[in-house]
């Protein structure tokens, strides 16, 4: 319950072997350092107990019958003080070591993850958003910090300190030691009782309720604008309020049920309770003549420390659980299958691209594409058209290996594309899609991405060809202006920078999303000119949305439900009177649409009926 | 922090919170008193007087019992305060958010506020529920112990106390040191996070241009900097932290050595010294514990501060009753408007006649979208008046204004319910057949037919189960059902496949028929068929008139029209471009 509002602390997570293994494998590189740090910490913990023992021993010397051995007393006092310094030095050494190791560990892990991400299919990224990748690479790796930096050394302290105390106390008097551990046993009993009262189930229900609050909150805030425009702000607010009040009710009910038992367990685990028990036992033992009064002193000092590890172990458990969840996500990322590397060293002969019986499925159950045959002769334009969801984009994205086909084969110059090193493939296949991708770097660096050795003149020439040179020249630092800082570009302008990049990279084969041309209505014409320049003289595979832009393509493939159903020139397809002809008619109608044309009146009267 | 809590708590929760605080103070005192009783117990015990020791022990046990009772009560009060605080915060934040102007809800804000009204509240109520106890007792208990030490032996008490100000100074000094390195680590973490996002978002491009296999320098440098910044921080923090611990330990060392010399000099009772030494070893521990809780407290405090800012955002003033409205026209009279300090519109005047269509055109950033948003009172103008149905929008109650308007914007938000729920939102009391009729007009019937559960199909969070065009059709059906006399339309720029585009346009035709229409137009057909065209440029009305009038004028609009017409007739590959093309010459050279 202590952790109810923060995180689940007492519920003893029993991680599966697999999870433990995954965390273990991640930690493997720092295992050696961690062991050394734990040993240092153990020394520090032992040295930490020494001053306590010193006080006890000092008491023995000072209370001894006869004259005080002052030399002995000073020795003990100085050892006690010196032990503190030892403890500090070793503690700092252990902490510094784990923290420095943690930084290297994090860096290496992040590099490993980034390197892995560079080899997974591009499609992996379209199924996730960048936020999730950031969470794994930054937040989840950081979540391991507490584990590497603190948790292990803390656990060592939590174990060594009571253990050394216990040995010392047993040596003083084993019977009184038994009395001293009574609070510990009682505390464990109470916590067990809490667990027995369905703590875990309640924690799960609590988390569910919290989730509902989260989603009600998100929906409330996201939808409020819409709701308000329909005059129903009260209603959406009510739903949020109901959900949150229900959550508070649940929390209260849970807390109230456990309040007495948890308060009792915390009192039992408090140092004052230990003190009363130890002194009570001590007085009783002294009155029975079982121990000398001076022997009670060590118990009063060290007996209080037995319950302290409870808290540390509770925290460590929590850290361990968080780290395990983080490690799970990190491992999921590291386990994402990479594109198989089958490099054979074969060199493509020419730039002809051929799809042969290509089949594709995202999940190995439902085929998204079937029997795709395509032949892209060098220098020709092939357009893929079809309803949304037909698979035309997927066909195009197989060529730059966003994914690999499930069946069939795609060859470039006679070589299957998965046998080409990716650098070779991407030197030959370029692409421009709707989502503009500029880096937070200078305009020049963005344009020269594919050819870092390009000269300033070449960069400027590409920018000119992409109709963006004037805009760049007008920027405060010209080509050195940094995207997002002093180069604030509109969507259309960013699009043209990305086209300049493709022009400079100069791949002979180009996969192009035609929607790029009208991504920004304000600079449509300029983008179109840039695209025309880019397209000239290349082998083109176009995902087409507006049919009239591709009427003169060499071949038009009509994709429907994952198959190519029609194929031919614009004229031939119109004559065929099939899906293409219907789509053409629809697009002609859409082009002639006016919001309140004569047709509108007719539909309007229909609405009024 | 505690004052801030009391401020947001509301009267009843504040009272519970105060009771909780008093209880916690009493807890700390009792704990300190219990510890201090160790001195007489041990003194009696070492004097071999077990009877006397038992009496003192009984007193200590009595303190323990009272402590347990107080602790239970203050824990109860703490939870009750947390619950009261939670209920109050949820409802007050929710209430306030519901009143904020539409313009306030940008995408970034939505995320922040969504977190604040869920996890943020949880963080805040965790303070009275869990965090106050260890923090308060960590200070009260040692203070009590030290105070009582003075009763037994002022010299040792003073020796123990003497390091406290030094410890406080060192603690602050270390904090400052670490804070200075914090800036660098924070900046490095932000930069690295940004690069990771970029790395993921630009993966396609990075690969296409051969920048993924051999590592992406910008990311790698950022990761390295993150490590190096961390190193600097540790190198700074470790000595500082060591100094702090050393000083705290010094308190014990002084008591130990000074006490030994006092005892050897015979000027202190040995039992008393030993008991005081026990107290001294225990007195610093809770302080170190409290330092560990600083992080959780800071999170709560930050959430509180954000709530304060949110609550300080003023809703737009709302009239108690709407002024009389007539007709369905819109008028802008010398309107000036600025986001924060950035002027967007200056001296904009025009009228949108009832039942007619008015199109807004202009380059991006010219203020088109702001105009239609001001008509719906997303914000209040800085100068001039916006009138809807002849009345200043500021004199119309939000519900009445909204009842006159339908808005179809590009960013469509659907609720995580069924298609029918989402349409019915337009007019909850509408009959089944009315909902179906609106669906049919907006061609949502085709979507429902395709889905397994028909109109009862779930649309997913935000409408994720539907395509962009389908979401638009549902939102238009919603607006058709609402049947408001004025339609504000922001024409979509995104590409739809031809069939979806045709369906959306059919839907819009049904919505806009016979209504007043103010549209941000991107399509030439839309612009051409408008009764009136308003050309905006840099926040002012540059030209105004019908299509033929403006074309005849040969000004800005005519230039816009020529450019756009050229774009509309574009062919990706009409005839293979002639070899005069610059990229060809470039390639020849490369």
Characterization of the model:
The complex is a heterodimer of chains A (609) and B (590). Chain A is α/β, with parallel strands linked by helices and 609 residues long. Chain A is built from 23 helices and ten strands. In chain A, the strands form two sheets. Chain A has a six-stranded mixed beta sheet, with helices on both faces. Chain A has a four-stranded antiparallel beta sheet with strand order 2-1-4-5, covered by helices on one side. In chain A, α2 runs parallel beside α6 and α8 packs antiparallel against α10. The two termini of chain A are 62 Å apart. Chain B has 590 residues and is of the alpha/beta class. Chain B has 22 helices and ten strands. In chain B, strands 6-7-8-3-9-10 form a six-stranded mixed beta sheet, sandwiched between helices. In chain B, α18 links the parallel β7 and β8. In chain B, α2 packs antiparallel against α4 and α2 packs parallel to α5. Chain B is elongated, with a radius of gyration of 36 Å. Chains A and B meet through α2, α3, α5, α9 and α10 of A and α2, α3, α4, α5 and α6 of B.
Spell out the blueprint of helices and strands.
The complex is a heterodimer of chains A (609) and B (590).
Chain A: H1 17-27, H2 31-63, H3 70-117, H4 123-126, H5 130-143, H6 145-172, H7 174-180, H8 182-196, H9 199-229, H10 233-268, H11 271-288, H12 296-302, H13 309-335, E1 353-361, E2 367-376, E3 381-385, H14 392-398, E4 407-412, E5 415-416, H15 422-428, E6 429-432, H16 443-447, H17 456-465, H18 469-473, H19 491-505, E7 509-513, H20 524-535, E8 539-543, E9 555-560, E10 563-568, H21 570-576, H22 579-591, H23 598-608
Parallel strand pairs in A: 3-8, 3-9, 6-7, 7-8
Antiparallel strand pairs in A: 1-2, 1-4, 4-5, 9-10
Chain B: H1 2-9, H2 11-36, H3 38-46, H4 50-99, H5 107-152, H6 154-201, H7 203-208, H8 217-265, H9 270-283, H10 285-292, H11 294-312, E1 330-339, E2 342-352, E3 357-361, H12 368-375, E4 383-388, E5 391-392, H13 398-404, E6 405-408, H14 419-424, H15 432-441, H16 444-450, H17 468-482, E7 486-490, H18 498-512, E8 516-520, H19 524-528, E9 532-537, E10 540-545, H20 547-553, H21 556-568, H22 582-589
Parallel strand pairs in B: 3-8, 3-9, 6-7, 7-8
Antiparallel strand pairs in B: 1-2, 1-4, 4-5, 9-10
Helix pairs in contact in B: 1-2, 2-4, 2-5, 3-4, 3-9, 4-5, 5-6, 5-9, 5-10, 5-11, 6-8, 8-9, 15-17, 17-18
């Amino acid at each position: 319950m202590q952790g109810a509002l923060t995180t689940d602390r007492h519920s003893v997570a029993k991680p599966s072997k697999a999870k433990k293994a995954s965390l273990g494998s991640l930690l493997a590189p720092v295992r050696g350092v961690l062991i050394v740090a734990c040993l240092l910490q153990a020394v520090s913990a032992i040295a930490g107990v020494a001053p306590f023992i010193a006080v006890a021993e000092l008491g023995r010397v000072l209370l001894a019958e006869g004259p005080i051995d002052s030399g002995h007393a000073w020795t003990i006092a100085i050892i006690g003080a010196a032990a503190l310094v030892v403890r500090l030095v070793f503690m700092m050494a252990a902490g510094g070591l784990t923290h420095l190791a943690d930084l290297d560990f994090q860096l290496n892990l992040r590099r490993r993850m980034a390197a892995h991400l560079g080899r997974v299919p591009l499609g992996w990224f379209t199924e996730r958003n960048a936020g999730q990748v950031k969470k794994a690479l930054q937040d989840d790796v950081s979540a391991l910090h507490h584990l590497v930096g603190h948790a292990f050394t803390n656990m060592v302290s939590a174990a060594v300190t009571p253990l050394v105390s216990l040995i010392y106390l047993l040596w003083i008097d084993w019977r009184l030691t038994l009395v001293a551990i009574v609070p510990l046993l009682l505390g464990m009993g109470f916590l067990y009782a809490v667990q027995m009262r369905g703590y875990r189930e309640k924690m799960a229900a609590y988390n569910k309720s919290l989730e509902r609050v989260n989603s009600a909150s998100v929906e409330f805030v996201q939808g409020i604008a819409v709701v308000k425009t329909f005059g129903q702000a009260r209603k959406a607010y009510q739903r949020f309020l109901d959900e949150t009040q229900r959550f508070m009710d649940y929390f209260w009910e849970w807390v109230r049920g456990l309040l007495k038992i948890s308060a009792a367990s915390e009192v039992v685990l408090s140092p004052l309770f230990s003190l009363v028990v130890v002194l009570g036992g001590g007085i009783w033992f002294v009155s029975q003549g079982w121990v000398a009064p001076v022997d009670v002193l060590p118990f009063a000092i060290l007996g209080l420390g037995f319950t302290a590890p409870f808290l540390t172990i509770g925290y460590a458990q929590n850290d361990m659980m968080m780290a395990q969840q983080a490690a799970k996500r990190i491992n999921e990322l590291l386990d994402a299958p990479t594109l198989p590397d089958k490099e054979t060293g074969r060199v493509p002969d020419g730039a002809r691209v051929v799809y042969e019986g290509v089949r594709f499925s995202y999940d190995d159950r439902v085929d998204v594409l079937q029997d795709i045959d395509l032949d892209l002769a060098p220098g020709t334009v092939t357009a893929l058209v079809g309803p949304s969801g037909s698979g035309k984009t997927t066909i195009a994205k197989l060529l730059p290996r966003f994914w690999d086909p499930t069946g069939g084969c795609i060859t470039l110059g006679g070589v299957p594309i998965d046998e080409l090193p990716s650098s070779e493939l991407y030197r030959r296949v370029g692409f421009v899609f709707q989502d503009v991708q500029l880096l937070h770097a200078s305009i020049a660096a963005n344009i020269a991405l594919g050819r870092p050795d390009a000269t300033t003149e070449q960069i400027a020439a590409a920018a000119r060809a992409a109709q963006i040179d004037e805009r760049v020249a007008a920027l405060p630092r010209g080509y050195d202006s940094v995207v997002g800082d002093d180069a604030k570009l509109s969507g259309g302008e960013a699009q043209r920078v990305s086209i300049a990049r493709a022009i400079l990279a100069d791949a002979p084969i180009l996969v192009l999303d035609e929607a790029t041309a009208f991504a920004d209505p304000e600079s449509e014409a300029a983008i179109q000119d840039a695209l025309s320049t880019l397209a000239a003289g290349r082998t083109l595979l176009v995902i087409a949305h507006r049919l009239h832009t591709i009427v003169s393509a060499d071949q038009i493939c009509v994709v429907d439900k994952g198959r190519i159903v029609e194929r031919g020139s614009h004229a031939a397809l119109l004559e065929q009177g099939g899906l293409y002809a219907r789509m053409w008619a629809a697009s002609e109608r859409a082009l002639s649409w006016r919001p309140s044309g004569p047709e509108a009146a007719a539909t309007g009267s229909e609405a009024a009926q | 922090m505690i004052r801030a809590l009391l401020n947001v708590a509301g009267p009843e929760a504040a009272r519970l919170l105060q009771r909780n605080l008093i209880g916690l103070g009493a807890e700390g005192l009792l704990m300190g008193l219990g510890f201090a009783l160790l001195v007489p117990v041990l003194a009696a015990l070492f004097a071999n007087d077990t009877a006397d020791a038992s009496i003192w022990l009984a007193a200590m046990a009595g303190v323990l019992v009272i402590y347990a009772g107080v602790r239970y009560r203050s824990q109860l009060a703490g939870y009750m305060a947390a619950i009261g605080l939670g209920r109050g915060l949820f409802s007050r934040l929710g209430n306030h958010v519901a009143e904020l102007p539409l313009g306030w809800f940008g995408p970034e804000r939505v995320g922040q506020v969504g977190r604040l009204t869920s996890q943020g509240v949880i963080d805040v109520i965790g303070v009275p529920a869990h965090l106050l106890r260890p923090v308060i007792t960590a200070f009260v208990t040692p203070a009590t112990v030290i105070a009582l030490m003075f009763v037994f032996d002022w010299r040792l008490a003073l020796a123990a106390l003497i390091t406290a100000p030094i410890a406080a100074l060192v603690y602050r000094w270390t904090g400052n040191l670490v804070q200075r390195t914090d800036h660098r680590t924070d900046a490095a973490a932000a930069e690295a996070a940004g690069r990771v996002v970029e790395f993921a978002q630009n993966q396609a491009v990075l690969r296409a241009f051969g920048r993924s296999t051999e590592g992406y320098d910008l990311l790698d440098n950022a990761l390295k900097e993150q490590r190096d910044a961390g190193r600097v921080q540790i190198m700074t923090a470790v000595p500082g932290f060591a100094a702090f611990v050393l000083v705290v330990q010094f308190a014990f060392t002084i008591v130990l050595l000074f006490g030994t010399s006092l005892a050897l000099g015979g000027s202190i009772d040995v039992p008393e010294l030993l008991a005081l030494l026990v107290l001294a070893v225990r007195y610093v521990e809770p302080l170190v514990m409290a330092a560990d809780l600083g992080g959780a407290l800071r999170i709560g405090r930050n959430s509180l501060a954000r709530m304060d800012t949110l609550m300080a955002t003023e809703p737009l003033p709302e009239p108690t009753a709407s002024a009389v409205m007539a007709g369905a026209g819109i008028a802008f009279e010398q309107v000036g408007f600025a986001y924060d300090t950035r002027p967007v519109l200056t001296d904009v005047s025009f009228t949108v006649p009832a039942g007619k269509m008015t199109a807004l055109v202009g380059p991006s950033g010219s203020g088109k979208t702001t105009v239609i948003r001001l008509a719906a009172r997303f914000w209040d103008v800085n100068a001039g008046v916006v009138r809807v149905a002849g009345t200043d929008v500021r004199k119309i109650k939000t519900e009445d204004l909204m009842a006159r308007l339908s808005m179809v914007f590009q960013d469509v938000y659907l609720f995580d319910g069924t298609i029918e729920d989402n349409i019915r939102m337009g007019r909850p009391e509408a009959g089944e057949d009315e909902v179906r009729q609106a669906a049919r007009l907006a061609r949502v019937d085709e979507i429902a037919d395709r889905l397994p559960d028909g109109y009862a199909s779930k649309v997913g969070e935000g409408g994720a189960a539907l395509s962009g065009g389908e979401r638009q059709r549902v939102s238009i059906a919603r607006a058709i059902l609402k049947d408001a006399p004025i339609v504000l339309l922001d024409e979509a720029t995104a590409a739809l496949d031809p069939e979806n585009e045709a369906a959306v346009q059919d839907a819009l035709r049904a919505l806009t028929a016979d209504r007043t229409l103010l549209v941000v137009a991107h399509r030439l057909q839309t612009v051409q068929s408008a009764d009136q065209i308003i050309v905006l440029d840099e926040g002012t009305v540059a030209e105004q008139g019908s299509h033929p009038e403006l074309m005849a004028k040969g000004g800005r609009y005519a230039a816009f029209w020529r450019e756009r017409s050229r774009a509309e007739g574009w062919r990706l590959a009409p005839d293979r471009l002639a070899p005069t093309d610059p990229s060809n010459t470039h390639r020849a050279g490369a």
